[in-house]
Amino acid sequence: QAVCPKGCECLEGTRIVNCSRLGLTSVPSGIPTNVQQLILEHNNIARIPDIPVGAFHQMKSLATLWLDGNLLKTLDPGYIPEMPMLSHLDLSDNRLKEFPWSSLSNVSRIMTLKLHNNKISKVSAFVDFPPHLQYLYLQSNRITTIPETFLD
């Protein structure tokens, strides 16, 4: 039986892991691989090295990931691994200056992508959006132009 990470709250066994508002500076170790909803919002995760490479690779059932309200400035494409079940990703209210648009191919079932309230300044003209994407939140960023291909 999987154990809940220290300080976090686990619901429905370990399918929902809530580690919000704990002052975390990194993703806690020991998150059960069967997690479906992982809530890491409103912590102090500031740098990509604070999220160990591969932290999410074993979470094949992960459907919802909240990383909003942290201090993230950059996000390497390697940190959005292939997550076949991920449908909701919230990176809002961070300090992201750019988003690794090419990594969207790793989350083919994504329906909601929240990137609002960051410092993103551009959207790639060559984004191949996943077919299920319904909601893309980009408000309150620094985007001044949208590529024509973005609207196709």
UniProtKB/TrEMBL annotation:
SMART domains: LRR_BAC (SM00364), LRR_TYP (SM00369), LRRNT (SM00013). Residues 3-37 form the LRRNT domain. It comes from the Eukaryota. PROSITE patterns: LRR. Keywords: Glycoprotein, Leucine-rich repeat, Repeat, Signal. It holds the Pfam family LRRNT. PANTHER family: AGAP008170-PA, NEPHROCAN. This is LRRNT domain-containing protein. It comes from Branchiostoma floridae (Florida lancelet). The lineage of its organism: Eukaryota, Metazoa, Chordata, Cephalochordata, Leptocardii.
